[in-house]
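Q: I'm writing up a methods section and want to include an example of the input and output format. Could you take the sequence below and give the corresponding predicted C-alpha cells, formatted cleanly so I can copy it straight into the document?
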Amino acid sequence: MSINFHKCSIHNLKELQHISKETFIDAFEKQNNPHDFWEYVNHAFSEDALSKQLAQEGTAFYFAYSNNSLVGYFKINTGNAQSDVKDPNSLELERIYVQKTHQGKQFGARMLEEAVYIAKEMGLTYLWLGVWEHNTAAIRFYERFGFKKFGEHPYIIGNDVQTDWLMKLSL
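A: Here is the clean output for your methods example:
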C-alpha cells in the first residue's frame, strides 16, 4: 500500500487534535483510571497544547496518508524540544499512532522508516523513543527494528505515574 507524508502546520490543528485524541483513546483508555485518563487527554490534546507544540522550534508533526485517507501521524523532536535525552545528535520519536481501522497494514513500520530517514537526513546518530513498559506489542515492534532499551523515565497520566522504557536505534 502506498503512503505519503505531510508535515503539519497550524492550519492542520483541528485534524491533528482529532487524530491525536482518537488514537490515544483507542490505545490506552481501557488500561487507565478514567479520571486520570480523561484529565490527561483533555489537557495533552487541547488546541492550546497542540498549537504550542506546532510552534515549538525542534518539533514537527507528520500526517500519514494512504490513498488520500489519513491513516496515522507521528511527532518528532530535536534539541531542547526533546522530552528527555536532549542530545543534539539524536531525534526523539515522541508519538507514532495508526488509526485502529488501519492497524496491521504496515503503516506504523512506514512511519518509523520515515522518522529514521529524517534523522539520517539531519545527520543525527540515533533515534530514541519512550514506550509504556506494559505496551508489550509496541516494545516488540520497536525491537524488530533494532531498538534497544537504554533507560526509563516517568510518564504521568493525571495522578498516575507510569514508567516508559527509553529505547534507542543507532543510525
